């Protein structure tokens, strides 16, 4: 297939672009290269282009020129706290880009789309979450993802678009050391940062109604997430409209279990410090992932140990690189 990958130089985008190229698809990446990095996808064609601020007609022209058959749309902003501080910018970036993309796809006759959504659309829902759970985002980031999904659904009713919106749970790890996420501000990288500074990893609250009192999340390996995109892309002919799918493992891991695993892999004997709850954290968020399995046969292959180990190797890779440069 001839696939346009937006944000293909980013974390999940680069993993997916590589997999597509490896299996022989024609891949062209567009990325504004602000947080994306060309090095991750060396050898693949990259066009520097900012979709949110670019024109749909330029984008359509690009699709025609390269005879694009499908789009995987990763480009966007993904930091919850930043979205609270800069909401209008998040709407411009995450919603504006979907509008430009859909206009371009319709004009160029490209009728297959896989969209990066997020479990953030479920807001503070707690427990095992299916795709039919209410969508009540509690921050602008989650809201922009939900609006993106809604625009895609409406478009799939207006013209023959086949689409899937993938709601990622907690993505982590690296398929190769150089592919790790260097910008993430979530549990695993924050703990590694603390440990590197000789400070104890922090647990935000141990009085939740969970087995060990700490929050439970569904951690899914980025290589599994990338693989899910290929499986869903291939299944679009069997999926009319905009098919919403959870992407997770269906298995919950507590913050304490994660922190123990992070300390073990980094060979640290630092203690752990328990702080108050962080505002807005639901007790347990675990995906019910039968939908994607039924549609494609996909299931996550990696577990938490692989996620933590590969994230650690990636961190080592980047810190060795920054030592070489300094
Ligand atoms: N946590 C700690 N200590 C830390 C960092 C995090 O205890 O130093 C805890 C949090 O309180 C939370 C859990 O670890 O209970 C996971 O927190 P993350 O920030 O790693 O991830 P979230 O579950 O809050 O958010 C993730 C994604 C978001 C997405 C959200 C909803 O990072 O992009 O899931 O699906 F919006």
TrEMBL record:
Cofactor requirements of the protein: NAD(+)
Pfam families xref list: Epimerase (PF01370)
Top-level EC class: isomerase
NAD-dependent epimerase/dehydratase domain span: 3-248
GO function terms (MF aspect): UDP-glucose 4-epimerase activity
Chemical reaction(s) catalysed: UDP-alpha-D-glucose = UDP-alpha-D-galactose
Keywords: Carbohydrate metabolism, Isomerase, NAD
GO biological process terms on file: galactose catabolic process via UDP-galactose, Leloir pathway
Pathway: Carbohydrate metabolism; galactose metabolism
Gene3D superfamilies: NAD(P)-binding Rossmann-like Domain (3.40.50.720), UDP-galactose 4-epimerase, domain 1 (3.90.25.10)
Superkingdom classification of source: Bacteria
E.C. no: 5.1.3.2
Family: Belongs to the NAD(P)-dependent epimerase/dehydratase family.
Protein name: UDP-glucose 4-epimerase
Naturally occurring in which organism (per UniProt): Salinibacterium amurskyense
